[in-house]
Amino acid sequence: MKRRYMKSITILGLILLLAFIFLNDDIGGVFKAKFLNVISIVSPKDLDSVNSYEMDLKLDDTNRILSGSESVTYYNRSGKAMEDIYFHVYPNAFNKNETVPVMFNDASYAYPNGFNPCYIEILNIKVEGKEINYSIRGSDSTTLKLELNKSIKKDEHVQILIDFELKIPEARDRIGYFDGSYLFGNWYPIAAVYDNTGWNLDPFYDIGDPFYSDSADYQVRITLPDKYIVAATGNIISDKVNKGNRIVSIDVKSVRDFTWTASSNYKIFNSEVDGINISCYFMNSNSERITKAISTVENTIKIFNEQFGKYPYSSYSIVETHFPTGMEYPGLSFIPNSYFNGSKSILGLEGVIVHETAHQWWYGIVGNNQIDEAWLDEGLATYSKVIYFEKTYGHSFGKDYYEKNIHSIYENKRKSIKGKEILLKPLNEFDGWREYDTLAYKKGAVLFQEVRNEVGDEKFFDILKKYYNNNKFKNVNTQDFINTVEAATNRKWEAFFEKWLLGK
Ligand SMILES: [Zn+2]
What we know:
There is one protein chain. The protein is an alpha+beta fold. The chain has four domains: 2-39, no CATH class; 47-232 and 246-255, Immunoglobulin-like, CATH 2.60.40; 268-359, Neutral Protease Domain 2 (Neutral Protease, domain 2, Orthogonal Bundle), CATH 1.10.390.10; 374-502, Neutral Protease Domain 2 (Neutral Protease, domain 2, Orthogonal Bundle). Helix content is 33%, strand content 30%. The strands form six sheets. It has an eight-stranded mixed sheet with strand order 5-4-8-2-1-14-17-16, with no helix packed on it. Strands 19-20-21-23-22 form a five-stranded mixed sheet, covered by helices on one side. It has a four-stranded antiparallel sheet with strand order 6-7-3-11, with no helix packed on it. A hairpin with a 2-residue loop joins β4 and β5. The site of zinc ion has 4 residues, from α6 and α7. Zinc ion (ZN) is lined by residues 355, 359, 378, 381.
């Protein structure tokens, strides 16, 4: 991480940053001397001026190309004049066989019929109606730099138009077509986050969920062959068929990404919980699994609404996919088909739905940098399963679930970790998926159990509610969570968090 900042900030900037760190006692706390990267993230964004995206998309099903026209109202919230704006174009990471960051590094699963590239071609970019210079950058070509003709003053906004074509691979990954179904995760030019560290321009690492974004509003229109049913982040406000085409319009506010899927195989089941429309999209599942999945989604939303605070959007969907693991995106979670065809246990199906749905609160609504501090949302989503199981099946079931599925796995796997068990480090510093799972998920969840053991149930749930309510739609960091714990308990927690986050 240090390396990255050294590249992107000037010496003067570094001096100012150090002065800021050591003069400001309110931030940093435990970490200021140890992790420069951690202290400097995020002041919550001004939510009155979130970016907005209007997209018009056309799917060429024969050539597997998605043509997109994206109009972005971009707000300069950097606190100073801005000369350049950066976007991520993540599909480019999937362009070369040698470096493709497919899930679990398993290319044979991702490409059952052989590697084929995914990339985004930028056709045209205009800012305020005028052409500008732009370039594709970064080690994996996932950074798009827009050089503005005229700088944007702080708090002002500009209109950016990007025309692009996305080449969709035949693949079972975040973006791809396979066996009648399309997935579009991390697929369009999305504005990079500018926070107190400057621009966040990490490549698409081959571990974890290597992206970080701000909440924004979206209005999207998708035109595709009428045999495809669409599932998406947000509210589908119209779905019309005309001369062989389907035109779907979607609208949503304050979400940190927009994801969609389309399939000719979906069966949809709709219901409603606490005024939220629930849609479940299945492919070839058996009815026992479908029934279990629907009741789990409904029950999870109900429990987390009570335990954390109300889900603020009017729709939530789960989608059966070929992606090899559960994956959260705002308002829409991917649930792998292995959980629906009986190759995984029914408790596993319940667990994966609960975990991804918990991410709607931890990642979706309360955001964090998933590259630098993945433990914060992964640990809490993992621990949220314990909360779900104890509220659903009773305390002893929850306790038992925690011991068997989290604590004992952590104790067992940690034996293979060399050196300190550092939870708070960026994705590219984890020694592979096993260490990442052991630390970010399991040790992360154990940390939350340990907090609960220290403060008792009442205060623990009070902490989670405050952490949620005070940080909705923002990006927060580890220090914000520690501050919430310290405010609720009226004491310092330095030693505790140092032990759990930085090694043991
Ligand atoms: Zn997760």
